[in-house]
Q: What sequence folds into this?
């Protein structure tokens, strides 16, 4: 399991319409565990709810973590917005499924709404490394633009472009123009975070403009695929635990993680949506039916790993390296 530690809410404030920001510090003033640009932490909330939030401060500053939470339907964001200054919160160690390639000569950061959070730490890092980059931030309105003031005052403000849907036409997000020639720029990496539809739009446009898939990096905040709801899945199959040879039937409507847990085989799990990668498991035999948004298309095609919190099997049997 991912180790945990306790932090105190040192400060909380309304960052934008519907967005609450939190500054988290060690209760005794010690340095927090280091993190890399694009990393997130698991936040353990009352009732056993665990949610992932990106760290959006400068990675060099380990005296604090800064996260921002958009109020949405669901227990996680409501519980976060209810936190008051002084409250103690349990976190998992920082993890990064959205790594920044610091060796790339040029980077293009594209955010939709609250997707700005991991890209803020990336921009901070790229600026320190004196790398060439541009940050494009798409919002419904400037009232909904989290960290707009921070971006205006940043030393890399000249690299930032904010696009508001209700703003003048001259500042509208022109994706084809932005990606023109991107396919020929083999030293350019693209990073996209935001709502699922926004990510899909940008990724598809980048591929259509000739960008190689390995240079397109995305991070989802939730798995928007309908297939992630295993309770409605009609398929049943078997899994075998390689270390013991025990074969377990996974019925329709139950996840592999939950089924194995009932038989005494525990797999670390957090988001249960195929987003965070906590439960990533090696597949020794069989063909997974991937329902996550964590693995890349290339990793899915290899078929040697899957996320048992949401994915299933295309074959009657999966043999797992457990």
A:
């Amino acid at each position: 399991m991912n180790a945990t530690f306790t932090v105190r809410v040192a400060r909380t404030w309304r960052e934008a319409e519907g967005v609450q920001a939190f500054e988290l510090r060690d209760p005794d003033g010690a340095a927090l565990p280091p993190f890399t640009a694009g990393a997130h932490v698991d936040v353990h909330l009352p009732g056993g709810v665990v949610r992932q939030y990106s760290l959006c401060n400068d990675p060099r500053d380990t005296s604090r973590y800064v996260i921002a939470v958009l109020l949405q339907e669901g227990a996680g964001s409501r519980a976060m917005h209810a936190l008051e200054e002084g409250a103690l919160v349990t976190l998992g160690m920082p993890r990064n499924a959205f790594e920044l390639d610091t060796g790339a000569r040029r980077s293009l950061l594209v955010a939709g709404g609250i997707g700005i959070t991991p890209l803020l730490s990336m921009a901070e890092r790229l600026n320190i490394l004196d790398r060439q980059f541009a940050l494009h931030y798409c919002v419904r309105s400037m009232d909904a633009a989290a960290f707009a003031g921070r971006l205006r005052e940043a030393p890399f403000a000249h690299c930032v472009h904010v696009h508001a849907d209700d703003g003048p036409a001259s500042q509208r997000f022109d994706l084809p123009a932005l990606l023109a020639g991107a396919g020929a720029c083999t030293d350019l990496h693209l990073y996209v975070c935001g709502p699922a539809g926004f990510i899909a739009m940008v990724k598809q446009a980048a591929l259509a403009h000739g960008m190689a898939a390995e240079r397109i990096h995305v991070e989802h905040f939730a798995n928007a695929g309908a297939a992630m709801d295993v309770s409605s899945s009609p398929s049943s199959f078997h899994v075998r635990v390689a270390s013991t040879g025990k074969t377990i039937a996974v019925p329709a409507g139950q996840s592999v993680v939950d089924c194995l847990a009932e038989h005494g085989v525990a797999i670390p799990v957090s988001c249960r949506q195929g987003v965070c990668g906590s439960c990533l498991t090696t597949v020794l035999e069989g063909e997974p039916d991937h329902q996550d948004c964590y693995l890349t298309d290339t990793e899915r095609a290899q078929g040697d790993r899957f996320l048992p919190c949401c994915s299933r099997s295309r074959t009657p049997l999966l043999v797992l390296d457990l």
